Amino acid sequence: MDISPSTTAPPPPQDAQPKPISHKAAARGATRPGDRVFLGLSRGSGILLLLIMAAIAAFLTYRASIVLSKNEGNFLTTFEWDANAIPPYFGIAVLAFGTIVSSIIAMVIAVPIAVGIALFITHYAPRKLSGPIAYVVDLLAAVPSIVYGLWGALFLVPHLTGLFSWLDQFFGWTGVFEWQGGAPRSLLTVGILLAIMILPIITNVSREVFRQAPQMHQEAALALGATRWEVIRMSVLPFGRSGIISASMLGLGRALGETMAVATVLSPSFLINASILDPGGGTFAQNIASKFSEATEQGRDALIASGLVLFVITLLVNGAARAIIARRKEYSGANA
Amino acid sequence: MSHALNTQTPPPAPSTLRGARLPKWAPYVIAAGSVAAGCGIGLAGGLDSRIQWGLIASILFLLVTYLLAAKVEGGRQAKDRMATSVVWVAFLLAVIPLVSLIWETVARGIKVLDGYFLTHSMGVLADTDVGGGIYHALIGTLEQVGLATLMAVPVGLLTAIYLVEYGRGKLAKAVTFFVDVMTGIPSIVAGLFILSFWILILGQGYSGFAGAMALAILMMPVVVRSTEEMLKLVPNELREASLALGVPKWRTILKVVLPTSLGGITTGVMLAVARIAGETAPVLLLVWGNPLINTNPFDGPQASLPLYIYQQYANSAGSPAAYDRAWAAALTLIILIMLLNLVARGIARWKAPKTGR
Questions:
Q1: Which of A97, A238, B127, B136 has the greatest number of C-beta atoms within 10 Å?
Q2: Number of alpha carbons in the 13 Å side-chain half-sphere of residue A309
Q3: Higher pLDDT residue, A94 or B168?
């Protein structure tokens, strides 16, 4: 395949990529009006995207600052949400707690299972099955969150009483799994539902990484007499570790910002409870969705303030995940 | 392996190299046995949840496999079998909720999903009454998603073209980074942004258009990413050939690059549409919901399919009629999205760009 370009186009043999030339032509010699307009349009939309991001941060900060200056409570430590009152009294302590706890539960459940499924697809499933399974997992990533929410509220919740009473019976003494016997609409339920929801995305990303694991390493390990599990542990998992981490963080970003599934499943209460089976806590996104309809303008500003916190958290998590992926790209380039 | 040779010196040397192995049917027998035992223990212990039966069965399966393999085949093989079983169990564990989700939606949704349901709105019906439909919500969803697509696709396409065809330097790097970051914005934050600037600051009312703007923000990065991937697949020889003939760069992009990658771009756009069609949170904040038919997305609250599901669930105080409608709407939404997905993937397969190799 190397031959045809060199024989058909001998004049510029030193330029394997034509882009530098065309770029120069576009930038300096953009004499043609069509080119100038087109470059302007496409650069303009790139800039528009940046502007939108900046505007999101700016407008949220602006509206949040209006209400935060009036807030009587401490935004970070107050355990109440009385944002419609004059003066408003609210804080995000409970929301932060609920968001973090439910996401941690979701990650603890989802990451091992997702890695298992990814390994199943790439290394364990019969070859004929692995394609369709991967396809189905792809499709499941497209199921809207509200459907997960509906299923969670009407199917999962009634089926969790058994698990909850079992946990209470045997692990109630830890305090974390104490259960007063209310409807199982607690942070644990949310965590389980979120875990199911983020399974597909974690599976997809880690599957891609496992698939790229160097075939030579695996064959070398096999040739030395390693079992399949040893091959995976010695050559696939080390290669895929950063991929798993970034996949998990992408999943975490989704779990943190998930709104409707949490809003339908959780019965929120503005207190922090040591037990994850009893009502207690809410999440940022859920609080916004459920408090929104009765919020005054000031109440909305307060919700926007909590949304700003969520925005910043997800930015950090996603940014970190992308940074890890980008770093891995360099490594894998060296490996390939 | 060498000590296996030393300890087992008897004549058939090749077979001793492999050591003892469990027969091929062993895993199936163990699986059947542990499922039976799980059901038995569940019945005997009076456990009411089938999930617990399954858990008992899978733990039994793991234990028995490990112990048997450790006894017959040795530690390393036992670990290997353990890992295989764990991976299978992980897969089955994940399949259960996902299959159940689809099953429940289809089984419960099919009850009221018929022609009447698709062609009538809720009108003045109370949420607890039987009857009513999703016509207004379908119209709302189609209009909002359509408007969002109209806004997001040109911007997304042009940005991708900028990144692939022109992009060098700091601006392109910044755009790439923020497109990545934008992919992770929670939908509710996009909704809050439009709320703060369109409704609170500009003083506009709730409308389908406000929701469409938030949806467009969610859609743009997806379109940019997928289009970028597709444009990168277009072989450089095509660009060179066109430029060498003296065709201006913009016409090269419009007439050569874009048509070559059109199939892939269409797929990406349709997947993005499928993604935003199910978004509820921004619609809840910006479109507000409306039981009546409102065909004008620029004026007044509209309905939308995902929002309809949520409201039927949340505002009905447990009325079975409303739950039936919610399931039926969920089924409609899933069918819509799956159709979009299948068609998109069909186009991708059909028009897969030739990479020149």
A1: B136
A2: 21
A3: A94
Nearest to B161 among A19, A42, A153 (CB): A42
- pLDDT tens digit string along B224-243? 999 998 999 899 999 999 99
User: CA A292 to CA B312: how far, in whole Å?
Assistant: 17
Q: What is the pLDDT of residues A265-297, one digit of tens each?
A: 998 888 888 888 888 788 999 999 989 988 998
Q: For residues B224 and B179, give the distance between their C-alpha atoms in angstroms, rounded to a whole number.
A: 8
Q: Which residues pair with A281 in a beta bridge?
A: A269
Token pair 């050569």 is at which residue? B256
Q: Let me know: does A75 contact A96? Beta carbons within 8 Å.
A: no
> Domains of chain B (ranges plus CATH)?
2-109 (no CATH), 135-350 (1.10.3720.10)
> Which CATH topology does A82-335 take?
MetI-like fold (1.10.3720)
Q: A-chain residues within 8 Å CB-CB of B217?
A: 52, 56
Q: Which two tokens stand for residue A170?
A: 């045997």
* Ranges A105-109, A222-226, B120-124, most confident: A105-109
Confidence at B156, pLDDT banded by 50, 70, 90: very high
Look-up: residue for tokens 């004026």? B299
- Torsions phi, psi of B245, nearest 5? -80, 0
CB contact under 8 A, A150 and B313: yes
A213, amino acid identity: A
Residues of B (247-266) whose Cβ lies below 8 Å from A: 248-251, 253
Judged by phi (left if over 0) then psi (alpha if -120 to 50, else beta), residue A280 lies in: left
Distances (CA, A) of A288 to A99, B192, B282: 13, 9, 11
DSSP B133-162: -SHHHHHHHHHHHHHHHHHHHHHHHHHHHI
For chain B, state the CA radius of gyration.
Answer: 29
Cβ <8 Å between B51 and A62 = no
Helix (H) or strand (E) holding A82: strand A81-82
DSSP states along B311-331? HHHHSSTT-HHHHHHHHHHHH
Q: Are A254 and A148 in contact (CB under 8 A)?
A: no
pLDDT-derived band at B257 (thresholds 50, 70, 90) equals very high
Buried b (16+ CB within 10 A) or exposed e, B273-299: bbbbbbbbbbbbbbbbbbbebbeebee
Determine contact, residues B233/B325, Cβ cutoff 8 Å. no
With residue B280 as reference, give the H or E element that holds it.
Answer: none
Q: Do B185 and A314 touch (CB under 8 A)?
A: yes
Which residues of B, range 25-64, sit inside 8 Å of A by Cβ?
47-49, 51-52
Distance CA A21, CA A15 (A): 9
Tell me B354's DSSP state.
P
Q: Is B167 on the interface with A (CB under 8 A)?
A: yes
The answer to whether the pTM exceeds 0.90 is no
Residue type at position B103: W
Q: What DSSP character marks residue B143?
A: H
Q: How far apart are CA B295 and CA A102, in angstroms?
A: 40
For residue A241, is pLDDT > 90? no
- A chain contacts of residue B163, beta-carbon cutoff 8 Å: 46
